[in-house]
């Protein structure tokens, strides 16, 4: 099996919908194959030898930064970490100027940013691939790892009910929703009024659903989303950049906490997922995240294997 997808060479990955359905399926298959190779001892693969990835980070990071840096090294390339506060961007240099400079130094850029518009503008002016390592709208790298994790434990999305609880406008949920819609799965989003997914993302998910037969539902009652669920998923209620809204968000989202009462409605063999970091006692209780049904550490590990699949395909 090839360790890359030829059609992705040199392309941007800003939204999960930048992929075709077939490319998404192939990235998932390659990620799982790379994980098998990793555990069979094939950890260093000389696929993108000499390639350099610049990492522009406006936000703190553990999983995204480490998975991308390790992935580059295991594929034979290297990376340069660039805190936005250390770049001239912090002193007012236009995004388009930074883009046109970096394209002459490196082979690709992964950016973790506050504003999705940063990625759009950067990609418009840079002639090298731009990868979304998180924005306020989407987190495609996380969605890939999420789907791989679900398939590891549930084998298929067919007949599987995924319940997401909390902020329906969450960046991780946006990408997960698109991926589930593209692959024909079933997702229930339990969220309060005013926290629904962004209209453009929702419309796109509905378009995919009509093509694949996926079911995406928005519900107010968390029990409805948890009932007979195979996957229980949540994310933080207050993301970086939303601190001023913290009090209101915590109050509004409190009824959607994942706790022992909520998971009692799920299937006995449900898996609990969280993209991390978790605010224990807010969106999830400690006993749930530490339970035997929790797969969050495997989910986090899968960020490495999916990153390798993406980087091998785009930078090769």
Automatic annotation (TrEMBL):
It is found in: Cytoplasm. Residues 159-313 form the Aspartate/ornithine carbamoyltransferase Asp/Orn-binding domain. Keywords: Cytoplasm, Transferase. Pfam families: OTCace, OTCace_N. SUPFAM superfamilies: Aspartate/ornithine carbamoyltransferase. Carbamoyl phosphate binds at residues 61-64, 88, 112, 139-142, 275-276, 303. GO terms for cellular component: cytoplasm. This is Ornithine carbamoyltransferase. It comes from Ignisphaera aggregans (strain DSM 17230 / JCM 13409 / AQ1.S1). The lineage of its organism: Archaea, Thermoproteota, Thermoprotei, Desulfurococcales, Desulfurococcaceae.
């Amino acid at each position: 099996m090839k360790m890359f997808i030829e059609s992705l060479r040199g392309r941007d990955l800003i939204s999960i919908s930048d992929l075709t359905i077939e490319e998404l399926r192939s990235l998932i298959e390659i990620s799982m194959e790379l994980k098998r190779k990793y555990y069979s001892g094939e950890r260093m693969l000389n696929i993108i030898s000499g390639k350099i990835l610049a990492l522009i980070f406006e936000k703190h990071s553990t999983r995204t930064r480490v998975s991308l840096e390790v992935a580059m090294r295991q594929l034979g390339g290297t990376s340069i970490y660039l805190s936005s506060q250390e770049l001239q961007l912090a002193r007012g240099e236009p995004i388009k100027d930074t883009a046109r400079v970096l394209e002459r130094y490196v082979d690709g850029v992964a950016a973790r940013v506050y504003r999705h518009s940063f990625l759009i503008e950067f990609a418009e002016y840079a002639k090298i691939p731009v990868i979304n390592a998180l924005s306020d709208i989407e987190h495609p790298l996380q969605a890939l790892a999420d789907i791989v994790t679900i398939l590891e434990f549930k084998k298929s999305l067919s007949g599987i009910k995924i319940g997401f609880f909390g902020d329906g406008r969450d960046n991780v949920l946006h990408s997960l929703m698109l991926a589930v819609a593209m692959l024909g799965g079933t997702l229930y989003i339990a969220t309060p009024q005013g926290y629904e997914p962004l209209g453009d993302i929702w419309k796109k998910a509905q378009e995919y659903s009509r093509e694949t037969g996926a079911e995406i539902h928005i519900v107010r009652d968390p029990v409805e989303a948890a009932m007979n669920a195979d996957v229980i998923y949540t994310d933080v209620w207050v993301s970086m950049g939303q601190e001023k809204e913290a009090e209101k968000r915590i109050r509004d989202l409190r009824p959607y906490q994942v706790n022992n009462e909520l998971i009692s409605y799920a299937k006995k063999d449900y898996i609990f997922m969280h993209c991390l970091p978790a605010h224990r006692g807010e969106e999830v209780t400690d006993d749930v995240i530490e339970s035997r049904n929790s797969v969050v550490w495997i989910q986090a590990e899968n960020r490495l294997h999916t990153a390798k699949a993406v980087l091998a395909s785009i930078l090769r």
